[in-house]
Design goal:
The structure holds two protein chains of two kinds. Chain A has one helix and eight strands, in the order H-E-E-E-E-E-E-E-E. Chain A is mostly beta strands. Chain A starts with 8 loop residues before the first helix and ends in a 15-residue tail after the last strand. Chain B has no helices and ten strands.
Chain lengths: ~140, ~130
Amino acid sequence: MLLNRFSPISMLNDVRTTFNLFDELTSLNRPALGPTTFPALNAWEDDNAFHVEAELPGMSLEQLDISVTDGKVLNIKGDRKECCEEGAHWLQRERGCGAFERYLRLPTAIDIANVDATFSQGVLLVNLPKAAEVRPLKINVKAV
Amino acid sequence: MSELIVRNDSPEARTGAEPSVVFTPRFDIYETEKGFTLTGDLPGVSPNDVEIRFEKKQLIIRGTVKSRQSDVNYLLQEYGIGNFFRSFTLGDTVDATGIQADLKDGVLTIHLPKKAEAQPVRIAVKGG
């Protein structure tokens, strides 16, 4: 057997490993990747409904759990699986995976029975019709 | 970080006149014995809207996401859509003729096979 002589350069590797460990541990606290900020949402309204859109690449509608509680709180829940082959090793990870959950309180009551959701090309669109009592009512003005 | 994918190029590396806002899609990269796989989040992008080029060792991914709403007032806006750009510099071991890409559910997957001479060969050890 060959003698494995100590090289000072290996100490540098130890230092690097330590820093990597710090990086890994602190990454849990970085808000940008936290479960409360994923998915990012866009929301808008028209006279009859609210529309909420979310970017959820790699998911399907079956993997998502969408519900409305309290008459006006939209809840989007899911779990994004990571895809990595057997025997592969990561070179770079930016996308993130794991469970997420988001709540969105809508400004007015909605018609829960008629909420619908579509999912296409990684984009979720939830249409939430406003409750009849908060929709604008057109009043005809009579000429006298 | 492997030497084979040398660096992630900055958005400044793009060429030509483009709008000032260019989004940088997120990518995961993993390596196997046979090659590299890049997966990137491109929600709302149809296969016709993404252009992938490989030239001068650079893999360039660019395209445009068309606006899905016309002229609405957002109550909440946490993301924007528009042009996107990302490029990666690849090493000599990638077999450029075998690159394959597909886009499903907003996720772009690009397979970059290694050249045959770059793949490891298992050597059987005979017992005496």
